[in-house]
Specification:
Helix content: 10-25%
Organism: Archangium violaceum Cb vi76
Largest sheet: 8 strands, antiparallel, barrel
Structural class: mainly beta
Protein name: Outer membrane protein beta-barrel domain-containing protein
Number of domains: 2
CATH class of the largest domain: Mainly Beta
Number of helices: 2
CATH topology of the largest domain: Porin
Distance between the termini: 53 Å
Shape: elongated
Keywords: Signal
Number of strands: 10
């Protein structure tokens, strides 16, 4: 009965000004348009990134550039490529996914990372490792960005800490990451 009266009463209530003439779908549309689902950005960072294992070491000082997508102002997907020097000339390739928590312009984040170290390395031969391992190390890890800020499409992160592990048979290799600065700009 109530559903049958709704098409008749709705125009009368609008005409009297008792309900707005805009539908609920049109009310929700401007709010959705103000916050984009995807926020793409280009970023660059610099610091220390090294892979240390019983049979090889690689990386150290350098930087990287990459692309980042922040989905619904919460989830982060990013990929970057860089250059490291000291223990050889190394190209680290990293993909990461994680979350950020927005408190005003303060946006700390935590990301799971997968990092490959391609290029030269310092190798150590021992009884456990009698030959040189030619396969590039790939480490699975965690990156924490406790001092991260976002203001009108620009991101700034200071002192990001990361650690990861990779199998080295026998043993395990550890990847360390300390980003002194990470700067990104949305497009």
């Amino acid at each position: 009965m109530k559903r049958a009266l709704l098409p008749v009463l709705a125009p009368a209530l609008v005409a009297l000004g008792l309900v707005p003439a805009v539908s609920r779908a049109e009310d929700a549309q401007p709010a959705a348009a103000s916050t984009p689902v995807h926020q793409f950005s280009v970023y660059s960072r610099g610091g220390v990134q090294a892979y240390l294992a019983p049979n090889r070491s690689t990386g150290l000082f350098g930087g990287s550039v990459g692309v980042r997508d922040i989905i619904q102002d919460r989830f982060i997907l990013q990929a970057d490529v860089g250059y490291l020097m000291n223990f050889g000339n190394v190209v680290p390739v990293q993909v990461a996914a994680g979350m950020q928590h927005r408190i005003g312009f303060y946006t700390p984040a935590a990301l799971a990372t997968l990092t490959g170290f391609f290029g030269e390395r310092l190798s150590f031969l021992s009884s456990d490792h009698p030959s040189v391992n030619r396969i590039p190390p790939v480490a699975l890890g965690l990156l924490l960005a406790p001092a991260r800020f976002t203001v009108e499409g620009a991101q700034l992160s200071i002192l990001e800490f990361g650690v990861g592990v990779s199998p080295e048979f026998p043993g395990v290799g550890v990847a360390y990451q300390l980003n002194l600065i990470d700067v990104g700009v949305s497009f």
